[in-house]
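HUMAN: Ready with one sample?

ASSISTANT:
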Amino acid sequence: MTISESQLQIWSNQGATKSSQQTHNSIRNALSRYQWPSNVTYNAYLQGSYRNSTNIRADSDVDIVIELTSVFYSNLTDAEKNQLGIIPATYDWFAFRQNVITALCNYYGSQYVDTSGSKSIKLLPNSGRIRADVVVAVTYKHYEAMRLVAEGMTFWTVPRGQQICNYPKQHYDNGASKNSDQQTRGWYKPTVRVFKNARSLIATGFLFPKHFPSYFIECLLYNIPPSRFRVSFQSTFTNSLNWLNTELNNDNWQRFVCQNEMSYLFGNSIVQWNIDDARDYVAKLIYLWNA
């Protein structure tokens, strides 16, 4: 027994977007009402599945980044910074995070601002505003041989202080390119949504979805060759599963990259996925298809 083409097509549909934009606008308004220290500039933007048009109906939270842009961090050594004439800033990410928390509490009330999370501030829903994961970040510049090669954002976990670097612009641009007429002719993003919806189904009987994060699923499918997409959802689903099942069970998985193409998908860092969880995810999808 297989999953019908009509069911896969339903799973391919994008979830609601109006509520995410309303929440985004509300947060931008809250920040604009705050009296910021002089010379502080920032940018607030959507990221994750809502930004990348891969959100599904089951996605209830919207991811929003508030990025400090008037200063930046980098991978340069102190000696390299001196050579490039980069001087230390007097205002840092830690001060900015506290200012963001104060701005949100002043506007919404502290009862709606949950700061207990290690990576993000949770803005609780109210009056048409959906729940938001607010990531407070600062501009990050990645250099190689003292030449700037990529710009992203960085933040630290609380309270452990573990630094996380991400590249949402590159992730978005590469996803758009993968979805283009030159590569998958618009099949990539709908297929990502199919795989996310299938995850939600198998999670009820096999494994909690926290082992199969949306970000990593999207990155997993990014590595599938464009030739595996198109024609129909059934053929795309089975072609993708067969390719992943083969590649994840030989050494080729070590070459898989995140969609931003700045790091490998599998490894031991906080921004990488566990290869055993990925294999388990694909195996369960195969079982779902067959059973």
Summary: The mean pLDDT is 93. The beta strands are 42-47, 62-74, 113-114, 121-123, 132-144, 147-156, 163-166. The CA atoms of residues 154 and 165 lie 4 Å apart.
